[in-house]
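To: structure subgroup
Subject: Chain for Friday's discussion

All,

I'm putting the inputs and outputs inline so they're searchable in the archive.
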Amino acid sequence: MVYRIELTPAAEKSLAKIAKSDRPLLKRIDQALLALAASPFPANSKQLVGEDPPLYRMRVGDYRILYQVENDVLVILVVHVSHRKDVYRFLKR
């Protein structure tokens, strides 16, 4: 059972910035997203506390991928991708 990956506009914008500055990192993030499609809860993911609907984070080096899993429609919604020092500021908005 493979999930479909969808990106929010914020995630698309973040990935576009990464694409301009660090292509090897973008490749690692792409590989992580493909792995996420096959298994939405890998060992290096954690559920974030206090988020409704539940949000998960996945580590890719110093970067974090924030995502939601919609099991009923087999979709993983990537909410944001950012450096670890900035990613949680996004949640406080």
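Points worth raising on Friday:
The chain has a mean pLDDT of 92.
The two ends are 34 Å apart (CA to CA).

D.
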